[in-house]
Design brief:
By secondary structure, this protein is α+β, with helices and mostly antiparallel strands. The protein is built from 6 helices and 16 strands. The protein is 14% helix and 34% strand. GO terms for molecular function: lyase activity.
Length: 310
């Protein structure tokens, strides 16, 4: 399920288990290697370990949780960097001065301001050639110590947007928000971003406890992003109890139930919670096959954060 080199994050991402099989001794390995029963057992284990997805059987989380934060970039900001820092209360950002501008409510067509992100021709991941897109980490104080949380936001790809091989989209994070091939041990944090893929196919792109070098691609193609119109993404995370793999992730697109993933291990430490927004958007992946062939833009707006009532 992993996609090698599908994620190469900015160097700031450094802020932000056991192996599946016990080691066999050499003699036992040689004796069992050719055994049909052993091969069958391995195949059955692999099948059991596959991610099982269903559709949510509950209403969208924005209807079940309490709205606690609705940040937006101020229209008076002198540039994208200032807009992000004031609007989302962060000092941890990249690409915002060069690649982000603020749209007025009239330009956004939503009744509130929006962020327009630029992806210059020839760019992909920030650590690759050039710096396309932008990112920031926003701790949402109203989510303090949240074990269940809900994020809703809107994205609009410009008409005729060329999706190439894929790119990153925002999602919730906890702890140090691992990305870029960071190891996820369950003791420091997790991240649950989204991606677009070829032809606009959508997916969850998650860094959780799993034997994967890079993030896991989950639910690819269960929905497709259109171009030239706003799409509402909704994400619910229910953290696991430490010591159990009972975490849950749910996704709705434009209010339609898309996927539910269970048996997730977000954490081994009970001091890890859902902390806020990992705004992360760029083409890539890493390498020329991921790079956008032309200047492109996407708009982001209406970020809302919810937590369980009571």
């Amino acid at each position: 399920m992993s996609t090698p080199n599908a994620d190469s994050q900015h160097t700031d991402s450094t802020r932000w288990g056991t192996k599946r099989r016990a080691t066999l001794n050499v003699l036992a390995a040689s004796l069992l290697a050719a055994s049909p029963l052993a091969l069958q057992a391995d195949e059955e284990k692999d099948k059991k370990d596959e991610i099982q997805l269903t559709e949510p059987q509950v209403a969208a989380c924005s209807t079940r949780y309490e709205l606690v934060a609705d940040p937006a970039p101020p229209p008076y900001a002198k540039d994208g960097k200032e807009a992000v820092r004031i609007g989302y209360g962060t000092n941890d950002d990249w690409g915002t001065k060069k690649n982000v501008e603020v749209l007025s409510p009239q330009e956004a067509g939503l009744g509130e301001t929006a962020l327009r992100v630029h992806y210059p021709a020839g760019t992909s991941a920030p650590s690759d050639q050039g710096e396309g897109g932008a990112g920031f980490y926003a701790t949402i104080n109203q989510l303090s110590r949240a074990e269940r949380a809900c994020l809703q936001y809107k994205v609009r790809f410009e008409p005729g947007f060329d999706f190439v091989k894929g790119g990153k989209l925002p999602g919730l994070y906890g702890g140090n928000a691992p990305s870029g091939g960071d190891e996820v041990t369950g003791e420091k944090g997790f991240s649950m971003r989204f991606m677009w893929r070829e032809e606009g196919k959508g997916e969850l792109y998650e860094y959780v406890v799993k034997d994967e070098e890079y993030g896991q691609s989950v639910g690819r193609g269960r929905w497709t992003f259109p171009t030239g119109e706003w799409v509402t993404i909704e994400q619910e995370l229910i953290l696991n109890d430490p010591g159990r793999n009972n975490g849950i992730a749910r996704v709705w697109i434009d209010g339609k139930p898309i996927l539910e993933q269970r048996n997730i291990t977000y954490r081994l430490d009970d001091d890890i919670y859902v902390d806020g927004l990992m705004f992360s958007t760029f083409f890539g992946g890493h390498g020329k096959e991921w790079r956008t062939p032309k200047d492109q833009i996407a708009d982001f707006a209406d970020f809302r954060f919810y937590r369980q009532r009571g």
